[in-house]
Amino acid sequence: MHGIGNDYVYVNTFEETVRDPVQLAVQISDRHFGVGGDGLILIGPSERGAPVRMRVFNADGSEAEMCGNGLRCVAKYVFDRTMVQETRFPIETGAGLLVVEVTPDARGRAERVRINMGRPRLQRREIPMRGDPEAQAVREKIEVLGRSFELTAVSMGNPHCVIFLEEDMDGFEVARYGPAIERHDFFPRRTNVEFVRRLSRGELVQRTWERGSGETLACGTGASAVCVAAHLLGLSDRKVRIHLRGGDLDLEWTEDGFVFKTGPATEVFTGEWPTP
Fold first, then answer.
1. Which of 73, 161, 219, 227 does the annotation list as catalytic?
2. pLDDT for 182-202, tens place per residue?
3. Residues 6 or more apart from 176 whose CB is under 8 A from it?
4. Is 67 among the catalytic positions?
5. 73 catalytic per annotation
6. What is the pLDDT of the chain when averaged over all its residues?
7. Which helix (H) or strand (E) holds 175?
8. Of the residues 67, 73, 161, 227, which is catalytic?
9. Which domains does the chain have, with CATH numbers?
10. Rounded to an integer, what distance in angstroms lies between the CA atom of residue 244 and that of residue 269?
11. pTM attached to this predicted model
C-alpha cells in the first residue's frame, strides 16, 4: 500500500506470525531482491484498547515511532476488510493513540482518511535535540558539508528538522544534505529532514529525507511538522496544502493545538512472502 507514494509492505499479525520484523523489514523492502518499499508495517492487536496497533520498521530495520502515510493505509486496510465498523476510530502507534476518520467511496471502501496527528512537541527534550531541554529550536543555525541552513525542530511523535529554502526544489541535493543532517550531533536519535519552499501562505512544496529510509515520495508526520513550523515562522496560515513528490496533503494546525492531516491511501497488491 502507499500514501501518495510513501510505500510500505503491510502484514496482518492477527493472522500471520513475524518472528524477526527487523530482518524481514530489510529483506522485504529491497527494491531489487524483495517486494520493495520504504519499510514494513505490522497491523496487530492493541494493548491500549484500540481496534489495532501499528508498528513501523524502516527499510534499514530500525523501528520508527510513527508514519502518517502508513497510518492512513492501516486505517484503509482495517476499514475495507470490516475489521472495524465505524468510520472514526483510534489506532495505537508508537506516538500514542491517534484517531482516524474515514471517508468511504461509492463502493464503501476508504477513499480519504483524516487523522488527528496530535499536538506537536517543540521543546528540545521532546524531539530530542541537544541544548537547553526546555527551549525550542526555531531558526537554529546548522552547518553541514560546508553549507549553513536555518532549521526549526518539531516532534510529531518522531523527530523532524524543517528547513525552508529559496532555491528550486527539483534541483536541490536532498541525497547530499539529508543524511548529513539526519546524523548530525544535534540529534541523538537521528532525525527526519524536510526541505521546504513556500509558494504562498496556503501552499508549500516539500521534499523529505526520511530517517532510516532515504528520500521518500511523501511523509505524513513530516508534512505535519512542516505545517507547524511554517506557522511558527509566520510563513503560512494554519491551513495549508503541501505538494509532495507523490501527491498533495491538506494540513491544519487548529487553535486548540492539534494537527489534522487529510489524504488518500491506496492498496497496490497482495501476495505471499516465503518463510525459511
1. 219
2. 999 999 999 999 999 999 999
3. 145
4. yes
5. no
6. 96
7. helix 174-182
8. 67
9. 2-118 (3.10.310.10), 124-262 (3.10.310.10)
10. 23
11. 0.87
